[in-house]
User: Fold these one by one.
Assistant:
Number 1:
Amino acid sequence: MQQLLIAGGAGLASGLALVVGAAVAWFVQVPRTVVAAIMAFGAGVLISALSFDLVAEATRSGSFWTAMAGFLAGAVVYVVLDVLLERRGARKKHGAAGSGGSGTGLGIALGALLDGIPETAVQGVGLASGGGLSIAVVAAVIISNLPEGLSSTADMKAGGRSARYVFTVWGGIALACALSALGGYALLGQAPEGVQSFVTAIAAGAILAMLADTMLPEAFRKTGTWTGLITVVGFFAAYGIHTIGG
């Protein structure tokens, strides 16, 4: 029961980062350059986390082939869903606030869920497999969710959405993240190691595809050539957490 509560709490904390970002954007005008810098830093954190905490763990718990199959599957699923949402005008890229298009309402919720479900489900998988909760993964997801809540809420506010609407959307997504982490734990607690390996790697593939498709391009728009250095600093910080914590 304690492990189940930890999984749910980690997922909820990850989702609440969206709510915090939304609250900041609602009450404070945050410069786009600051949001972009957080994105670049968060991208570096995620790259480190998916490399050392997800892919490496998936390979250890299963095999190279199960890990790589899941890794590729996660990227394919993410890209296909992303393309479908874009074609329906429902997908909004990270940090694209003020760029026009249909960046309000259900589209933002769908985009955040598309990113958030694999990121939080793997937290529960890690606990279920006996590997414990990866602080680096949780930190990476929280850091990457903050700018999404910031930029998307700025768009919703500019589009005339009410505070009740905005925080209901993000509160619902935070709850979905908690349920995703609980589901990862409950559904995979007794699963074979090969299945756990495959699912963990799916999350890693989806996250890496998201980084290349959304976070880094949007961060580069505002931070330019500084994006690479900021991303490296994020990687350094996360790898430090991984190494010292391990």
Note: Helices lie at 2-27, 32-61, 64-87, 106-128, 135-158, 163-188, 193-223, 226-245.
Number 2:
Amino acid sequence: MFVSFFPRPKLFFLSAIVWTALAMAFWYGFADDLMGSSAPGGDGPAVGVATFWSARALWFDLYFALSAAVFAGAWMWFAPHPWAPWSILGSALILFTSYFEVEVSVAINSWYGPFYNMVQAALSKSAPVTIAQFYSELSTFAGIALVAVVVGVMTRFFVSHYIFRWRTAMNDFYIANWPRLRSIEGASQRVQEDTMRFATTMEGLGVNLISAVLTLLAFLPVLMRLSSNVTELPLIGSIPYPLVFAAVIWSVLGTGALALIGIRLPGIEFFNQRVEAAYRKELVLGEDDAARADPPTVSMLFADIRRNYFRLYLNFMYFNIGRIVYLQTDEILPYILLAPTIVAGKITLGAMNQILNSFTEVRSSFQYLVNAWSTIVELISIYQRLRSFEAKIGGEPLPSIETLTEPLSL
């Protein structure tokens, strides 16, 4: 799965984490000060598209490109790999666009303040607001949105090619070892379908994880600054950084509870793929052999599919009860936390919207597992199926789940 696309995967990913940590430490400790301003995601004077090509932003873009080029060059020299331009430089580009999308969110959050304060002034007639001023603020948002659209479309186009290259690398690797793999149940499906599903799912989860981390780094300081007027929480009282504390505790509790509820789902999804493959294989054999795919055999195989899907639906019902209750409560949580501050009139409408948006971004970052659990279940199932391929290639025993019998009960 990884060795076909990345050079020496374990060492590569470990070195990528270390290099990223060193690059970030050097940026925050020295390089950013060369521009005499805060790091990306901090508070800058510009509001609007100008923030994307300010001296600070361009300096960070150059710093990122140089860091990625040094890392890629070192690996291409140390461990040459035919897919290195896509796996290393392509991954770096996806990482950068993930950072840029976070910067768009920060720019929009900065726009919230002056815009909603202007709306409040207009509605309360506390200050004169002209129609030109109103449209000017809307045009500022339109500029940010236009940049986001252009970058987003180009990114999705590149990611589509990135995913297919990864699938191609896995496909070539498995086809080269096909004589040893063909005896595994559902071998053709694993090569034809699971490789694409794995690349797509892995890329999506990886990008979302990176975005969650970058969003947290960008919005956590913003939330700490904006929540300076929020001095207490309902039932808890006065504590330092109350909104940050609430976001962390609420997200950790939700993630833990939902992971516990959905703990059986990966195994059930794996069995689903097994019974589907057995049914498909029998039907394919029946196309050329009249003795195969007879009604009793097909009925028995389909009964296995029915039983496993009903088990999956039941377990997802438990999971969705917890997930939907949690997410619906999540919608009103910020207002509950801000209730004493709002009632006391300690913040303006603009500041409230900035706080709500920052709180949502921080909370969502901590809720990565909650939002991605269904996809993670699918990825674990695909990984287990492809892992059997790689065990066969390496002459290792097949994973234990390959020999397990699916439970008969729901």
Note: Residues 37-45 have pLDDT under 50 and may be disordered.
Number 3:
Amino acid sequence: MTASKGARAPQTTFVLGGGGSNGAAEVGGLRALLERGIQPDLILGTSVGAINGAAVAADPTVDGVEQLRDMWLNLDDADVFGGSIFSGAAQLFRTRTHLHSNQGLRRMLSERLPERFEDLKVPFACVAASIERAAEHWFTSGPLPIAILASAAVPGVLPAVEIDGEHFVDGGIVNSIPVSRAVESGARDIFVLQVGRLEAPLEPPRTPVQVGLVAFEIARRHRFSRDMATLPKRVRAHVLPTGDAKPPKLSQLNYRNFRSIAERIDRAYEAASAYLDALPSHP
């Protein structure tokens, strides 16, 4: 999505990172931005950030964010994953690749989002990881819900998504917080909405599950740190805070944890509002 010759580059880009149920924090940041009249020319999302980003691209208003907040507040893990952890174990036994069906998430996306990228009010793109090409793939046009489903297909939790004979899994594997894509698109002001895990200290893993979590966190943080350190001088990037005084340790992360959603959204809203109000001037 690099700006073509003669086309206007997106001046302001919202970048929404992945992070499972912690993605509720991004809703607070989005509200703070839109209340201050900071409107995106482009929205980029990964995994849960793709879900939030597409919702705002469909309705880039404070009212649109309130509808997104209502969705989060009424969300239950059964809506996304369906059934109990025991049924998940049975699903894993049957498939040998994933704990949960993606039908609940697919249904929710189809009910709440437009059918196609072209129906959105703000240009939007989301990233997924191609298994066959071992590379990041950006969806920018065509059917919308299935592209987001691919971007949010957490390996081992949800099945890979097949699109045109190619299989895709969670975009966080290849570009968890896609600042680089915003730069390539020509953005001058980038607002990064993240879920708070960047501040959580990493420790040597003690269990097989932690081995995978730590490896993933190293990969996602390394790329983000590199992208932020190599920003062109023309680009201003703002990483909105989430307001979490004590970010969760990896050992405490639970992808099915949908408790305290309202508090998480409100903390992020207050923290992002304070950050934005302290800026010398809004773009």
Note: Confidence is low (pLDDT under 50) at residues 84-93.
Number 4:
Amino acid sequence: MALDRIAVVGAGAWGTALANAAARAGRAVTLVARSGAAAEALRASRQSPRLPEAPLDERVGVTAAIADVAAADAVLLAVPAQALRAAAAPLAPALKAGTPVIACAKGIERGSHKFMTEVIAESAPAAVPAILSGPSFAADVARGLPTAVTLAAHERRTAEALARALGSASFRPYHATDVRGVEIGGAAKNVLAIAAGIVAGRGLGASAAAALTTRGFAELMRFGTAYGARAETLTGLSGLGDLILTCSTAQSRNFSFGVAIGRGERPDPGGAALAEGAFTASVLIDMAIEKQVEMPVAAAIAAVLEEKLTVDGAIEALLTRPLRGE
């Protein structure tokens, strides 16, 4: 399977980073911006306003014409999870049948409770859905710093071909067929990263942070198992690996969002520093209830975000839960 021409839809920080990564892998890359004005500005400056520290690779072409994806052998959808359906639908008329379309967002669609590959399958039926996730910051990827991720498709041959097409000395995709496991790891860890940020913002200490991350991972495992994920996926890059990264540094948008909440602020989750976990939390809990999965940490975060609990009330509720065996 030859995948030499790559289109990246979404010219924000993550789209710019992935376009750079694909160019370093030797692919012909087209970056699709949201408007003609945005495309013109990016062509002129070679600098995304969302990623000023990493210039766009000179080998990346920029367009605003969604029809240009017709020439692509694979498409990376680098848009937020809640905007993925709106971005995928216009692709459908332009796509060749069997073109891999890779979701690069970490979340679950609100309302429908659909995972990202399910949204792609519904919006662009001719596409072959895939998912890319793992411990990766856009700035690191854009600059060519060493990064490893997981790239999953239902057919191993497709996953392997995509990994070969995007892999380079600095960007290493591990291929997998556990699509659901990769999607769950990315979505759930964002919610748990908000919890870790609250712990940091409240100054509760490193011991509390370690306990929360560990118990949060147990929740992620229970949820993933209930929805058919493989244990090895959840303990891999797209599960535990991503959780460790996003629960430990202010470079994580979800962690920083949680820090602000812990300090008593009211940050906007949909602002420039988009916190995907804020939109996923309530969906995650609804789906956990459907499968009778206990997720006290994630449930506490959902309650705080919906202003049903204060931060102090959530902390007290977690610390006063009945003692039990691990």
Note: The first helix runs from residue 13 to 24.
